[in-house]
C-alpha cells in the first residue's frame, strides 16, 4: 500500500492539443480510499462522466504493429505498461492480439473486458524472445490501481509498470490521427460548399446560362449599385435611355415582367441644338428586390445600344440583391444571340371551340401583315386547351407585333397574344406546358388547396399530429379587454380611490339665526396650515390667532362675539 501511495503522483496529458506538454497531478484521496477497499476484498466500482474517453479507430501501423484502437485524450494515471510478453504476439493480427491481452488480465487479475478502454502495442524491447510491450488504458483509475495493488502477489511471466510519460509512438500516432481528422473536416467543408453552389445554380438557373456567348463591351450597359429611397428597393432605374429602347427584345422582356413601367422622356428639342438627341429615364418596378436583380441579370446584361451611347442601370443595393453580386459580376460583358422563344408569340383563348378552328401561316400573315412569319404550330397546354404558336423571322419583329397587337380574331373567336418566355411558358416546363402567367397562378392556388385538403385528411385519420394552436387572451364581457401582464410579474393591486373634499373647510352644522362664533355650536374653525395638527382649544394662543369670518353665512355682522 505504501508503494502505491508513493507513486500516486502521475501525469495527465491531452495529446490532441499539445502532445509534448506533461502536467503533473496528484491522485485524489478518494482513489486511495478505494484502493484500501480493494485490498480488503470489496469490489466497489465507480465511474464518472469526466473519466470517459473517446475511442477512435485507426489503421494498423506496419512498423510498430499498433493496435487499431486508440484514444485522442490520454490520462496516464489510468494507463499501465505490460512488458516481457512473448515477441511472437507481434505476428498476430489485432483481433487475436486483443483477445490474448484481455485473457491474460482476466485470468491473472480478474479484470473485466468492459473496464479496458484501449490496448496499444509499443516498440519491441531489448529481449528478443520476450520483447513485446503493451500499453493498457483503463476506463477509471480504480481498475488500474486494482491490478497494480495485487501485481506483487501474483506470479505471472510478465511485469507491470507505471506510465511516467506518454510513449513517443503513441504521440506520433495520435498526431497522424489529428491530421487525418482535419483533412476529412476540410474535405467535408469543401463538399458542402460545392453542394451549396450547385443548389444555388439550380435555384437561379435560366435558359440563357447554357447558350454560347462572347465577351463584347461595345454598347454594353453600365451598372451601378444604389441605395433605394423609401419603398424603391424593387425598382430598376435606367438612365440615358431612348424611346426606341422600349422595343429592344431584352429590355422589352424585362418590362413585361415588371408590375409598373414609368417612362420620362423629353417632349421637344432645344432650340439652340435642333439636331441633338435627348434621352430620358425608364423605371421598372417589380414585386420584390429579388425579382429586380434576377431580371436585370437575365435580360439587361445582354442589352446593347448602338453608337457611343450606353444606358446606365441602377441596381437596388439591398441585402437580397447583394447575395447575387458575385454571380452578377461574372456575367458582365456577355453577349448572346436572341433565344428562340423571343421569336414566338402564342395565340390563345379560354374558348374551347378554338380547337375546331383552322389556323396556318396564311391566317397568321393576315393578322400581322407587316411581319415576316416563318411558321405556325398547333399546341396543347397541360389543361388540354388548344393554342397556336407563331414563329417570326427576327426578335424585333416579334416585339413590335406583340406591342401593337394585343387581341386577334381566329375565325369568330377573339384571342389574346402572349409573348413566349415572358407571358407564357414553353414545353420545357413539366406540368406547366404552354400556360399563361395567370393560369400558372391559378394552378398554384389549386395545388395549395389540394395539399391542404390532403393534410386535413391525414390529421383526421390520425396519421399526422398537428402542432398546438396558439391561444390569445379572450375579451371580457362588455367588450373590455383583459389587462395583460408580463410573465413572472405579479398583477397590480387595485384600491378604491379616496374621495377628495373640495370644500374650503370641514363641514359643520349651520348655527341658529343670531348666534355667531364657536361657543354656540362647539365648532372651532381650522386656522393651522394643511398637514399641521390644529392647536388644542385650551391653548392660550388660540384667541390671538386670526380666524376666518363667516359673516355671509351668519346673516350679517351682528350677533354676539366669542
UniProtKB/TrEMBL annotation:
Composition bias, Basic and acidic residues: 1-10, 23-36
Biased composition (Polar residues): 497-513
Annotated signal peptide: none
Region (Disordered): 1-47, 180-201, 497-562
Protein name: Uncharacterized protein
Composition-biased stretches (Acidic residues): 37-47
Amino acid at each position: 500500500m505504501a508503494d502505491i501511495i508513493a507513486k500516486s503522483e502521475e501525469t495527465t496529458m491531452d495529446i490532441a492539443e499539445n502532445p509534448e506538454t506533461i502536467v503533473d497531478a496528484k491522485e485524489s484521496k478518494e482513489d486511495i480510499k478505494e484502493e484500501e477497499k480493494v485490498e480488503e476484498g470489496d469490489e466497489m466500482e465507480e465511474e464518472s462522466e469526466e473519466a470517459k474517453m473517446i475511442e477512435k479507430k485507426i489503421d494498423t501501423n506496419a512498423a510498430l504493429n499498433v493496435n487499431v484502437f486508440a484514444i485522442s485524450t490520454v490520462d496516464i494515471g489510468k494507463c499501465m505498461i505490460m512488458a516481457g510478453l512473448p515477441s511472437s504476439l507481434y505476428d498476430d493480427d489485432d483481433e487475436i492480439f486483443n483477445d490474448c491481452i484481455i485473457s491474460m488480465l482476466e485470468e491473472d487479475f480478474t479484470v473485466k473486458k468492459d473496464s479496458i478502454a484501449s490496448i496499444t502495442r509499443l516498440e519491441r524491447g531489448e529481449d528478443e524472445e520476450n520483447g513485446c510491450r503493451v500499453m493498457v488504458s483503463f476506463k477509471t483509475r480504480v481498475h488500474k490501481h486494482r491490478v497494480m495493488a495485487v501485481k506483487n502477489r501474483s506470479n505471472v511471466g510478465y511485469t507491470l509498470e507505471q506510465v511516467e510519460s506518454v510513449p513517443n509512438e503513441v504521440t506520433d500516432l495520435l498526431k497522424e490521427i489529428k491530421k487525418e481528422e482535419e483533412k476529412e473536416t476540410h474535405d467535408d467543408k469543401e463538399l458542402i460548399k460545392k453542394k451549396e453552389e450547385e443548389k444555388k445554380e439550380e435555384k437561379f438557373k435560366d435558359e440563357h446560362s447554357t447558350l454560347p456567348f462572347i465577351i463584347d463591351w461595345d454598347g454594353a450597359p453600365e451598372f451601378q449599385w444604389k441605395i433605394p429611397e423609401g419603398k424603391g428597393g424593387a425598382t430598376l432605374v435606367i438612365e440615358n435611355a431612348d424611346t426606341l429602347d422600349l422595343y429592344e427584345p431584352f429590355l422589352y422582356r424585362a418590362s413585361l415582367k415588371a408590375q409598373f413601367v414609368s417612362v420620362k422622356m423629353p417632349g421637344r428639342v432645344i432650340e439652340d441644338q435642333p439636331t441633338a438627341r435627348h434621352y430620358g429615364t425608364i423605371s421598372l418596378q417589380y414585386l420584390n428586390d429579388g425579382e429586380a436583380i434576377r431580371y436585370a441579370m437575365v435580360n439587361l446584361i445582354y442589352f446593347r445600344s448602338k453608337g457611343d451611347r450606353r444606358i446606365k442601370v441602377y441596381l437596388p443595393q439591398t441585402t437580397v440583391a447583394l447575395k447575387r453580386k458575385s454571380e452578377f459580376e461574372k456575367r458582365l460583358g456577355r453577349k448572346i444571340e436572341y433565344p428562340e422563344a423571343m421569336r414566338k408569340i402564342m395565340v390563345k383563348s379560354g374558348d374551347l371551340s378554338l380547337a375546331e378552328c383552322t389556323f396556318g401561316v396564311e391566317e397568321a400573315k393576315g393578322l400581322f401583315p407587316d411581319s415576316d412569319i416563318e411558321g405556325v404550330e398547333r399546341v396543347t397546354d397541360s389543361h388540354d386547351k388548344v393554342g397556336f404558336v407563331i414563329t417570326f423571322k427576327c426578335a424585333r419583329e416579334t416585339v413590335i407585333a406583340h406591342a401593337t397587337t394585343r387581341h386577334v380574331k381566329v375565325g369568330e373567336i377573339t384571342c389574346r397574344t402572349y409573348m413566349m418566355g415572358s407571358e407564357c411558358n414553353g414545353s420545357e416546363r413539366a406540368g406547366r406546358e404552354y400556360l399563361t402567367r395567370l393560369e400558372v397562378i391559378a394552378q398554384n392556388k389549386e395545388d395549395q388547396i389540394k395539399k391542404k385538403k390532403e393534410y386535413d385528411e391525414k390529421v383526421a385519420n390520425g396519421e399526422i399530429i398537428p402542432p398546438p394552436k396558439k391561444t390569445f387572451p379572450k375579451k371580457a364581457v362588455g367588450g373590455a379587454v383583459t389587462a395583460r401582464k408580463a410573465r413572472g410579474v405579479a398583477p397590480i393591486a387595485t384600491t378604491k380611490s379616496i374621495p377628495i373634499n373640495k370644500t374650503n373647510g370641514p363641514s359643520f352644522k349651520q348655527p341658529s339665526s343670531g348666534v355667531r362664533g364657536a361657543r354656540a355650536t362647539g365648532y372651532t374653525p381650522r386656522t393651522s396650515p394643511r398637514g399641521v395638527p390644529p392647536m388644542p382649544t385650551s391653548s392660550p394662543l388660540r384667541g390671538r390667532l386670526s380666524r376666518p369670518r363667516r359673516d355671509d353665512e351668519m346673516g350679517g355682522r351682528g350677533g354676539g362675539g366669542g
